[in-house]
Amino acid sequence: MKDYYPSCKALITNLKLTNQEFRIYQYLCSQYNLRKHEPFVRIVNIAGFFQISIATVKEILSRLAELEQDQKKLLTVNFNGTYLEFEMPYYKSFLENLGFKKNNLAAGFKNVQNKLKELNSQADTKIYLFPKLDQFDLSEALRDMPDEDFDKIKPSQLRFPWVYYDEKTRRTNTQ
Length: 175
What we know:
This protein has helices at residues 10-14, 19-30, 43-50, 54-66, 89-98, 105-125, 135-144, 147-152, 161-174; strands spanning 68-69, 72-73, 76-79, 84-87. It is elongated. α3 (43-50) crosses α4 and α7 (135-144) packs parallel to α9 (161-174). Helix content is 57%, strand content 7%. The relative contact order is 0.09. By secondary structure, the chain is mostly helical. The protein folds into two domains: 10-105, Arc Repressor Mutant, subunit A; 135-174.
């Protein structure tokens, strides 16, 4: 189960996380126990994995504890007298929205599989020009194409639209 963990892309756009904060939060998500809905946080492991000091890890964890997404904290830290207890309320609600229930992973994986099938079926319905070419072969094909034919193509007709823009830039620079 350590190779797969759901991740929320909304955190990237909504929160102003530094690169290291985001990497540590993703690490915490990867260590989250999906079956028990409990985080597994060891400060020493985080410091060793990222090759940073324990003090730096504590600073980053305290920063993550201050942040909220959808009125839920990313991380909560409680001291119970002998050790620190961590909770991840936002990640827990994110998992529950995906269908991952405590002690029932099957429903969550089934929902994720259905969503992936839905996304794949949407992607397969669009018909592209040059559908069998990868981005490098497409770049060569566009480079060899006459200007009249190239001007008829729209970026939305290609599977890799950035290749079109790169070729268009190359053609304007060489003229």
